[in-house]
Amino acid sequence: MITWSDAALAELDAALAELGPVLDARQFARLCGVHIETIYDGAKAGTLPVPPFKVGRALRWPTATVLETLGLASGHLTNDQVESESSQVRDGAGESCHAHVTRGGGGE
Asked: Could you give the strand order of the β-sheet that contains 22-23, starting from the edge strand earlier in sequence?
């Protein structure tokens, strides 16, 4: 198990708090730990855990919904929360973003 320092957890909390009300594809990809093209493929295939909405031609995601879905919306993160989310992404278990994006969503 990776143990994050209090300073690292505080930095992650601060970074999450600075996000605007909506995420663009690059921000969503970073939170999910996947390449941006994987996000576009998942959006096209309908396999993302949070469906996008369009602003003009751009895809956007509501920040609060994404953070809640990823288990990051609780305010102050703990090592247990970070490790739980990391293991879900590594194992493809649960409702993690990585699992949804990569499960059968190859796109065309």
From this structure: 22-23, 58-62, 53-55
